[in-house]
Q: What sequence folds into this?
């Protein structure tokens, strides 16, 4: 329940934040990396650091993460297939993987796992379309029903929750 | 003019650094616990049996790992541990860790114990059959189950053949098929005779012969007709010869069918004999029946570890996929990409093992033998022990060899299969030799004991055959069993020999020979009664068809020959040796 409230807070907090639609979309894209790829991997530490350090919507990142976690679970068979194809079936990539595998640090990213590589490649390919769609969607929301939602009683109730303050720390 | 958006959020550096510091502190606090859990999980996954660690300490500054209370369960026995060292200290090479490679320069293991009992079942993939260890275990179990161990069945009641089902006899369908083939041959040959149309040819030849007998030497038309008739007779004889060849071929096939019925009858005798559950009187069968089930186990276990080694230590440098780490998300596959002149993903350069006055040494255990370039070697010596193993996967065809001689091994007593007896081998000397060269296996397992003890099951005190076997073996105090396995790994030949074989076989033959012979005679008579009712008529039909076809061919041929001979003789008489154009 608390997770759901946080998700809703995150959604509305992000949509009505002072950040531009581009910042919000960029945050969602970075969050999608966290959600689509298996979490405990070195590349996600870098993504998280970027989400914190770059002037993108942190709330958007949390929203993207929350939204894409279930999608990641559902798409795992697809990621496995993509990763398997890239790692084992595309022969001209083998020298690249061999070099990366025998380099310092790079193997710690677990790139040689089919699900990790498949999900990362999918997230990378998906990033630009997701960014543009999200930017357009947020802009449309704000010019259409955004103000009415902001004035609604429900919105004020949700935003009054103390948990929202945590998100305000990283608002753009 | 709009305010330029900043790219970096500098004020977040502080919280991020705090987060990293917290993560570092948590790592420092829980590194040992995390490493312990991960080692347990990975070890369990690799070996197919529970790996438990009571204490693990990482000293990254010195590259040392200390493990205490390590317990590795047996993947084959539910409540037994494979080994249990008191303490294990590993000296790690730190630099390869940055490449996610584990290189251990040296391991010292003290206080090793083998085969200790455990309270819970330590077999993990035995139930699930998942992972490499699980699939290898399933493979080796399937391999072991393919051996056809004869069963030493000692019938204690009346021998009967009531359960003989005629539908399971192979002679009867074979006889039906042969009968149908005989009918088919008869029809085919009759058709062939009919298409010869010999009647008009023979009638015409008879008429020509009559005219020729009344003709004079100047009756050139009749003479020419006679010559043409002779030519037609020759052609008719050729056609008959063709049919005759077909008949001969068909007859030989029918004869082969009759011989096949005899073979099928022999198979039916063997099948019916199996239903009788007669005791085998052949010594090798008795040896295999008594010791076969137990003797296959050491081979099965040795093969399990050899196959496991081949899966984890494959030859060559091709990319290798293995099941990924367990996690909430799908595990996927983790692919290794070995590279020439690079470090292997795992390498244990040297391990020194000590246990109860024994000493062992393991060298070159690696995930990429082609990179390491040398075989993995193991040797252990001590009082009553000599063991060695070599896993040579550095070349394209892996060769796995192991040998061990262990004295004073206390084997548990076991029930002799099919006989109400229990054998306690006592303290025995065992030898195991194992060689898996590519897909060819040669293995030997031997047990020798000089203080065997026999006990009999009181529930079978009145069993005549139980008494018989008891009298045969109870006086034997020596045990000498040797099991050999050789041939292609998928279908090796198993041979079991023991000093008990001859003793039991001789006693059984002396006491049961007459009874077994009578039962076999009765069984044969029953099979014959069922089979003869079908085979007799079929045999008669085949003979009739053969005789009929051969007689028909012979008659037609004789008639043609006779007419041709008479025509030629009359022509010679008319012409008096003069050759006309």
A:
């Amino acid at each position: 329940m608390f997770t759901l409230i946080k998700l809703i807070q995150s959604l509305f907090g992000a949509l009505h934040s002072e950040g531009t639609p581009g910042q919000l979309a960029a945050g969602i894209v970075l969050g999608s990396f966290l959600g689509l790829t298996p979490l405990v991997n070195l590349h996600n530490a870098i993504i998280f650091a970027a989400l914190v350090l770059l002037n993108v919507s942190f709330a958007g990142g949390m929203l993207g993460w929350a939204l894409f976690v279930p999608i990641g679970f559902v798409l795992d068979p697809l990621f496995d297939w993509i990763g398997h194809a890239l790692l084992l079936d595309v022969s001209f990539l083998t020298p690249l993987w061999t070099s990366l595998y025998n380099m310092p640090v790079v193997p710690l990213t677990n790139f040689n796992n089919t699900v990790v590589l498949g999900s990362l490649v999918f997230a990378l390919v998906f990033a630009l379309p997701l960014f543009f769609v999200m930017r357009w969607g947020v802009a449309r929301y704000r010019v259409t029903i955004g103000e009415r939602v902001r004035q609604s009683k429900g919105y004020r109730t949700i935003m009054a929750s103390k948990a929202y303050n945590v998100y305000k720390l990283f608002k753009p | 003019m709009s305010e330029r958006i900043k790219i970096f959020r500098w004020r977040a550096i502080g919280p991020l650094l705090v987060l990293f510091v917290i993560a570092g502190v948590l790592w420092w606090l829980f590194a040992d616990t995390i490493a312990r859990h991960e080692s347990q999980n990975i070890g369990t996954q690799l070996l197919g049996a529970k790996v438990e660690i009571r204490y693990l300490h990482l000293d990254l500054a010195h590259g040392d790992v200390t493990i205490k209370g390590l317990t590795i369960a047996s993947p084959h026995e539910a409540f037994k541990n494979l080994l249990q060292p008191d303490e294990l200290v590993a000296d790690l090479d730190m630099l390869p860790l940055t490449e996610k490679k584990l290189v251990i320069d040296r391991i010292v293991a003290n206080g090793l114990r083998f085969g200790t009992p455990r309270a819970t079942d330590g077999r993990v993939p035995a139930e699930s059959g998942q992972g490499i260890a699980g699939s290898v275990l399933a493979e080796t179990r399937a391999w072991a189950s393919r051996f056809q161990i004869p069963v030493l069945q000692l019938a204690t009641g009346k021998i009967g053949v009531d359960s003989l089902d005629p539908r399971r006899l192979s002679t009867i369908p074979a006889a039906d098929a042969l009968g149908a083939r005989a009918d088919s041959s008869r029809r085919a040959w009759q058709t062939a005779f009919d298409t010869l149309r010999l009647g008009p040819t023979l009638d015409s030849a008879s008429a020509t012969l009559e005219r020729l007998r009344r003709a004079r030497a100047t009756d050139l038309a009749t003479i020419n007709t006679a010559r043409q008739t002779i030519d037609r007779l020759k052609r008719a004889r050729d056609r008959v010869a063709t049919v005759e060849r077909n008949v001969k071929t068909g007859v030989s096939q029918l004869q082969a069918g009759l011989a096949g019925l005899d073979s099928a009858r022999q198979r039916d005798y063997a099948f019916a004999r199996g239903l009788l559950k007669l005791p085998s009187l052949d010594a090798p069968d008795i040896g295999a029946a008594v010791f076969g089930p137990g003797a296959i186990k050491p081979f099965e276990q040795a093969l399990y570890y050899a196959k496991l080694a081949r899966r984890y230590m494959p030859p060559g440098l091709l990319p290798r996929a293995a099941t990924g780490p367990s996690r909430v998300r799908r595990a996927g596959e983790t692919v290794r990409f070995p590279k020439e002149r690079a470090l292997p993903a795992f390498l244990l350069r040297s391990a020194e093992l000590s246990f109860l006055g024994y000493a062992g040494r393991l060298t070159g255990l690696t995930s990429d033998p082609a990179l390491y370039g040398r075989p993995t070697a193991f040797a252990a010596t001590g009082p009553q022990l000599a063991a060695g193993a070599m896993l040579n996967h550095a070349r394209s065809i892996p060769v796995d060899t192991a040998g061990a001689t262990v004295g004073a091994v206390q084997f548990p007593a076991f029930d002799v299969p099919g006989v109400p007896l229990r054998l306690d081998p006592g303290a025995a000397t065992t030898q195991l030799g194992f060689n898996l060269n590519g897909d060819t296996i040669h293995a030997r397992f031997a047990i020798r004991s000089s203080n065997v003890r026999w006990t009999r099951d009181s529930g079978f005190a009145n069993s005549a055959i139980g008494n018989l076997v008891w009298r045969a073996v109870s006086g034997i105090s020596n045990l000498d069993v040797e099991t050999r396995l050789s041939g292609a790994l998928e279908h090796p030949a198993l041979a079991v020999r023991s000093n008990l074989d001859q003793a039991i076989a001789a006693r059984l033959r002396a006491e049961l020979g007459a009874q077994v012979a009578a039962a076999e005679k009765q069984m044969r008579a029953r099979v014959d009664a069922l089979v003869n009712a079908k085979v007799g008529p079929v045999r008669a039909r085949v003979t009739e068809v053969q005789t009929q076809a051969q007689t028909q061919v012979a008659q037609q041929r004789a008639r043609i020959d006779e007419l041709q001979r008479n025509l030629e003789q009359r022509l010679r008489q008319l012409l008096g040796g003069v050759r006309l154009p």
Q: What stands out?
A: The mean pLDDT of chain A is 85. Chain A is about 75% helix and 0% strand. The interface with chain B takes residues 20, 23, 38, 40, 49, 52-55, 72-73, 76-77, 79-80, 83-84, 87-88, 94, 97-105, 107-108, 110, 112-116, 118, 169-170, 172 of chain A (CB under 8 Å).
